[in-house]
Amino acid sequence: MGVVLGCIADDFTGATDLAGLLARSGVKVSLRMGVPEEAPEDADVAAFEVIALKCRTVPVAEAVAETRAALDWLRRAGAERFFWKYCSTFDSTAEGNIGPVAEALMAEIGAEQTIYCPAFPENGRAIFMGNLFVGELPLAESPMKDHPLTPMRDSNLMRLIEPQVTGKVGLANRLTVARGPEALKARLDELKAQGVAHVVVDAVADEDLGIIAEACHDMKLMTGGSAVAMPLPGIYLREGSITEAAKRESAPQVGKGSIVFSGSCSAMTRAQVADYLPKAAGYKLDPLDLAANGPQAARDWLAAQDPETPKIIYATAEPEDVAKVQAELGVAEAGELVESALAQLAQDALAQGVRRFVVAGGETSGAVTKALGVTAMEIDAEIAPGVPWTWCRSGDTQIAMTLKSGNFGAVTFFTNAFEKLEQIS
Ligand SMILES: Nc1ncnc2c1ncn2[C@@H]1O[C@H](COP(=O)(O)OP(=O)(O)O)[C@@H](O)[C@H]1O
Ligand SMILES: O=C(O)[C@@H](O)C(=O)COP(=O)(O)O
């Protein structure tokens, strides 16, 4: 059986989130970091293939080229239906990359229309009348207004998408969704007849997502957060498009040494770092010091630690401190300095014998995963909604790694993560 759904995620935490939610149905999900070098014809493909890219904040042309390459791989692997996964807080800039990539994918596969549904009710993301809420706050009043790379200053998804695309944008609202899949399909057809290519679909609860998945599972391209994809495996199983359930392999053995790397500055990660600091040896990276002196001091600190001691290295900082650093170094430069320091430190930790890695932050996860040369991940149990443990390899070395979206997880997430790993390994 070939690929039933080919998924492309715009960052690495988002990709593990999506793979984890698809895997809840017990189906086999394969997660590949970057477009695989191996030809799809030679690869052992799963019914659900997820390709993780790091293209959320790169220039539009680069994002389009990378997603086209991923699409090409998935099509050669047999996929005919696709899912474009972006953040449940719609992280993007006025230029993109959510809209331009969706439009490029639509053109490639000949899709006249797609839906946009970043809702993730379990994590407090809801869409009503086209407006995205984070908990009880409109997106633009939530902590996402201060994101270091993609500050979100509007909550209306139609207004956010419009400048990113050339086609017409419309809405299928909650009143329609609540009337069921047939009503939603009729609304999508009505919008299609009016030439609307990009449809924001409201969803405030998991029941809405079930209806949306039912109505849209045959679309050539769906776009959204992970939650709207979650019901798809169940639908494909019911329809007989897939038959196999994943076989649970026994968990690999990994050493006890652990480290947390945090480059996320989200409100939730700040609380999680503060919670974990009294429980682990901690080192705070200062981007201005990194700019002046490089990461040697942090490397020396790490080298002096016992590999078995729980450790956390973080650049996580309050919005006013981030703004100060960005004013001095530039947004991209500050981000790159932190990411490349954490990438180097991840390699050092591995060399030192650390085998359990927790990474907080999407961009940060991309940097750390690439530095460790991880090309594929096997999904295991979720620590929190959208954050699974994964098993992967750095060269020949087996490691356990979890990639936490900045906004996800409880305050005690880092402790919960290692407790969960003890239970499953
Ligand atoms: N103290 C800091 N000052 C400036 N930028 C920072 C600081 N700490 C982290 N960053 C950068 O902020 C970005 C956070 O993005 P990301 O890792 O995707 O986190 P999130 O998942 O919260 O979006 C990264 O590029 C990171 O390198
Ligand atoms: O959909 C989500 O919220 C996450 O899967 C996601 O994309 C995470 O991005 P970061 O917050 O940048 O880690």
From TrEMBL:
SUPFAM superfamilies assigned: YgbK-like
Chain ranges of the Four-carbon acid sugar kinase nucleotide binding domain: 260-414
Catalytic activity: 3-dehydro-D-erythronate + ATP = 3-dehydro-4-O-phospho-D-erythronate + ADP + H(+); 3-dehydro-L-erythronate + ATP = 3-dehydro-4-O-phospho-L-erythronate + ADP + H(+)
Molecular-function GO term, any one: kinase activity
EC number(s) per entry: 2.7.1.217
Keyword check for ATP-binding: yes
InterPro entries reported in the protein's UniProt record: 4-carb_acid_sugar_kinase_N (IPR010737), 4-carb_acid_sugar_kinase_N_sf (IPR037051), NBD_C (IPR031475), NBD_C_sf (IPR042213), OtnK (IPR050007)
Top EC class, one word: transferase
Keywords: ATP-binding, Carbohydrate metabolism, Kinase, Nucleotide-binding, Transferase
Pfam short name (any one): NBD_C
Residue intervals of the Four-carbon acid sugar kinase N-terminal domain: 5-231
Top-rank taxon: Bacteria
Family as reported in the entry's similarity comment: Belongs to the four-carbon acid sugar kinase family.
Record function comment: Catalyzes the ATP-dependent phosphorylation of 3-oxo-tetronate to 3-oxo-tetronate 4-phosphate.
Record-given protein name: 3-oxo-tetronate kinase
